[in-house]
Amino acid sequence: MESFSLILAIVVVTALAFDFTNGFHDTANAMATTISTGAMRPKVAVAMSAVLNLVGAFLSVEVANTISKGLVDEAGIRPEVIFAALVGAILWNLLTWLVGLPSSSSHALMGGLIGATIASAGVGAVHGDVLVTKVLIPAIAAPLVAGIAAMLATRLTYSLGKKADGKASEKGYRAGQIASAGLVSLAHGTNDAQKTMGVITLALVAGGTVAPDSDPPMWVILSAGVAIALGTYLGGWRIIRTMGKGLTDLQPQQGFAAQTSAATVILASSHLGFSLSTTHSVSGAVMGAGLGRKGGVVRWSTATRMFVAWGLTLPAAALVGALAEYVTGFGDWGTAVVALFLVVSSAVIWKLSRREVVDHTNVNDAEEAEPAGVVTTAMAAVTPPPAGGAVAEEPVDSFPAQTAAERTPSTTTTV
């Protein structure tokens, strides 16, 4: 092994910092619905998710190979390029965390890498076919597939549970929800932790430390798994609030259907080497589960903001990555300026987050903070009455867990 240069050490540390932000940014993917339905206490949920993320990091390296060998041309990459890419990804993760939007850490990383690579080596250094087939197409397909699967699973679940004892059925679904949440955490480790492994491996190849086309070394796998697990345990409570309460109000049956559907999509994609966004998959599944319950609705105002963030992730991270790469091109002092900018910006974002603290004690207090949008109000108002004419009673009797905020839009519209 050749000498480990200072810039390479900086890149590895920055990559692990990104992995840490990925952990707390994406905790909501696995545990938001479990926490919002009360199936698990918040701190216990994130602890379980952290352990399973670490385990999942050791199950496969296919996604890591997509990042390190497939997306960009290794020959045109310098360690400074990887550093610039990580700056763009980290800042986008922190900004979206600040406003509580579940955007894709995966796309932030790939956007930063693409922007920095283009700034350094030109458009030809990006493999467009890999970008389309293993990044962009899965980005569109994953939430649709997971959403449709969750909607159908939710309807099937309620259909099969009509004659079941209410309390016993709910207890069973809560247990199933815990198991499916664990599966999502495991899937998240197999997919998202590998992205950092791929970036570090790409930096090692660029720095001449490992041979081209190498798989991630064991120390890279271990360090990436530990970093994402620590971030997960910290808990991205702002995004957990949006995912668990801001999009829709979930019952245990819906939470179980959403998490099982999302985990299936993520695990299948990891096996195929698709650099999938777990955020897109879980968000799509949550919305599908919301629509799958009779009388359930999605708060489209929140969903629209989330869709906008999804669309901006790749280009925004790419732009920051390209600018950072331009500055690092001035030499060591340029790299130092970019590093200082990253540290100061991160500190400012953290300071802003302290103005309204969201943690495990108030993560479920979101009904006032996330009011129903116009579309949701209209959908609730025109929900067809059940057979027999019991218009007022059925929503309450059939869905005892339905919240007051969920029923309020219909009442307001009628008045």
From TrEMBL:
Q: Write out the GO biological process terms.
A: phosphate ion transmembrane transport
Q: Where are the transmembrane segments?
A: 44-61, 81-101, 107-128, 135-153, 218-240, 307-327, 333-350
What keywords were assigned to this record? Membrane, Phosphate transport, Transmembrane, Transmembrane helix, Transport
Q: Where does it localize?
A: Membrane
Q: Which domain of life is it from?
A: Bacteria
Q: Tell me how this protein sits in the membrane.
A: Multi-pass membrane protein
What InterPro entries does UniProt report for this protein, alphabetically? Phos_transporter
Recorded hits in Pfam families, A to Z, give: PHO4
Supply the name of the protein. Answer: Phosphate transporter
